[in-house]
Design goal:
By secondary structure, this protein is an alpha/beta fold. The chain contains eight helices and seven strands. It has a seven-stranded parallel beta sheet, sandwiched between helices. α1 crosses α8, α3 packs parallel to α4 and α4 runs parallel beside α5. The mean pLDDT is 98. The structure holds D-gluconic acid. D-gluconic acid binds next to loops.
Length: 253
């Protein structure tokens, strides 16, 4: 089981003040990693860091806008120079916007591309430059069941998560030979702030519990196991893959 131990490692999780990002940071910390929380709101990050410190975890915060290439590069270069190596990167930051495609605004479409796809490039490139110099590193991108499935009203989000799945493969193509393992986790439907409109809909809850073989929503702590696996030595020969944590929804019609 020592291959799953993250002791001595440091993990940066983007968008980790709440939701899936916070749960993944908590899971990585419980496996022994020092964690670095990221978000745009320093006050929200401070509250999240305090929650994790109450469990005795080693927590730092690194606020920066993941959609800003230069800001990401500066924040990560500064952290590496001043605080130490980032061994594990979880690209979790993302957003959702739901509307019929014929009514979807160009501004919302571009914001989804910047937040869900371009951010993965900006942050991964900044971190990978240091990982490549060390010949080792773990990058875990948060995809979605929408990486392989679609449903009405979320076509642009679906496009972004499809891109995350393929960008993960591209990262593996470029960086596996340099000692990095780059993979993705595709969550099914989880009770998160991003899905608040859905969890509060009786109609959607009825559809989801019938459509999902497990018959229920996922709970965010159920994503931590796959994340610890991909962040640890236990996945040293795993590259370019996507692990679906979805209650079986992508396995069935
Ligand atoms: C939706 C949801 C999905 C999420 C889901 C799986 O509107 O269908 O927001 O798009 O991605 O939580 O990750």
């Amino acid at each position: 089981m020592s291959r799953f131990d993250l002791g001595g490692k440091r993990a940066l999780v983007t968008g980790s003040a709440q939701g899936i990002g916070f749960a993944l940071a908590q899971g990585l910390a419980a496996a022994g990693a020092a964690v670095v929380l990221n978000g745009r709101d320093p006050a929200k990050l401070a509250l999240a860091a305090d929650r994790l410190r109450q469990s005795g975890f080693d927590v730092e915060t690194l606020p920066f806008d993941v959609t800003d290439h230069d800001a990401a590069r500066a924040a990560i270069d500064g952290f590496e120079a001043g605080s130490g190596a980032i061994d594990i990167l979880v690209n979790n930051a993302g957003m959702q916007h739901r509307a019929p495609l014929e009514e979807f605004s160009a501004q919302a479409f571009d914001q989804l591309l910047q937040t869900n796809v371009a951010s993965v490039f900006h942050v991964s490139q900044a971190v990978a430059r240091h990982m490549i110099a060390r010949g080792a590193g773990k990058i875990i991108n948060i995809a979605s069941v929408m990486t392989s499935l679609a449903r009405p009203g979320v076509a642009p989000y679906t496009a972004t998560k499809g891109a995350v799945g393929n960008l993960t493969k591209g990262m593996a193509a470029d960086w596996a030979g340099k000692g990095l393992q780059c993979n993705a986790i595709a969550p099914g439907y989880f009770r998160t702030p991003l899905n608040k409109a859905l969890t509060e809909s009786a109609e959607f809850n009825d559809w989801l519990t019938r459509r999902t073989p497990a018959g229920r929503w996922g709970e965010v702590d159920e994503l931590a196991g796959a994340c610890v696996f991909l962040a640890s030595e236990a996945s040293s020969f795993v590259n370019g893959t996507t692990i679906y944590v979805d209650g079986g929804i992508t396995a069935t019609v």
